[in-house]
Amino acid sequence: MSDSPAAASPYEVLGVSPSASDDELRRAYRRLLRHTHPDVGGDAAAFHTVQIAWERVGTPADRADYDRRRYPDSAAEPERPAYASGAGRGQATQAGPRARMYGHPGGEARQRYLELLREWAGRGTSIDDPYAPALIRSAPREIRHWLAKALAEESTAQLVSALGIGFTAWHDVVAGATQGKVDHVVLGPAGLFAVLSEDWGGPVQLRRGELVGDALDPDDRPIEDVEGAVRALAKSLRVRFTAVLIVLPDEALDAPLTVTGRGRRPTVITLPRSRLIGVLRSGLPGIDRGSFEKVFELRSRLQDGIRFSSD
């Protein structure tokens, strides 16, 4: 079970409230065991998730320890995660010149998180610190997801910034009037990449050309949505993207998942964050690296045409 803000808590996995009695917790666990056990046709991954959840809160002692860490009573936090704006980007990993960077990575996602958090807390409720771990952990998962997404975008931006002066990146880019945004546009010698940074708080897999997983809503179509946004952006800028990269935490998938491009649709690759830099530096097999002149020409066109969601 991931420590991402978007990850399901053991109580959410078991389908009970954090205030449920020990008997209610035990009944929920047993019911889920019957439904998820592989011997009765259940899903092995779901069965494993239920087991992990029970290990965390299954006994009074384990539950008390978990609640102290996740739902602390006092204002004192033993370890405060770096959730506040800008803190989630981590430390620089490379000295020297950085990639050219424009826009505000994670800005729109953070704004959405704050809006939903205030709406959930209720009108007139004062929120002294919207990034207090206890508050984040008590919020519904769909709200926590927006904070997790902001952190994911900031993490990607930090990695891209260390690529060096041969690269340029634009963040929180408006794709079109009705097509939302593209998290990152990265230009370098290996090509022009559109990047989606995500963290749904759980593993995903590819099924019929779309990403699915317990952490995603059945109606979610992340690949379809990002393809639409990238097509709209490519048309408005009159450019062709080398590929679309969907970047996830390493624990969300074991290996890259590829949806081959068709017609004007670029190839879409879902990859662990640890592999992002390799793709941006070296490109994709079978695709020629661009020339310096082409990169320079594209940079000028993108710089003139790109608009940001914060504008």
Could you give the topology of this structure?
Layout: H1 10-14, H2 22-36, H3 44-57, H4 60-70, E1 100-103, H5 107-121, H6 133-138, H7 141-161, E2 168-174, E3 181-188, E4 191-197, E5 205-207, E6 210-212, H8 222-237, E7 243-248, E8 257-259, E9 267-272, H9 276-282, H10 292-305
Parallel strand pairs: 1-2, 4-7, 7-9
Antiparallel strand pairs: 2-3, 3-4, 5-6, 8-9
Biased composition (Basic and acidic residues): 64-80
InterPro entries: Diphthamide-biosynth_chaperone, DnaJ_domain, J_dom_sf, NERD
Region (Disordered): 1-22, 64-104
Sum this structure up briefly.
By secondary structure, the protein is an alpha/beta fold. 40% of the residues lie in helices and 15% in strands.
Description:
Residues 1-22, 64-104 are annotated as: Disordered. This is Heat-shock protein. The chain has 311 residues and is of the alpha/beta class. Helices cover 40% and strands 15% of the residues. The longest helix has 21 residues, at 141-161. The radius of gyration is 21 Å and the shape is globular. The relative contact order is 0.12. Residues 73-80 and 87-94 have low confidence and may be disordered.
Task: Give short descriptive properties of this protein.
311 residues; alpha/beta; Restriction Endonuclease; seven-stranded mixed sheet; two-stranded antiparallel ribbon; 10 helices
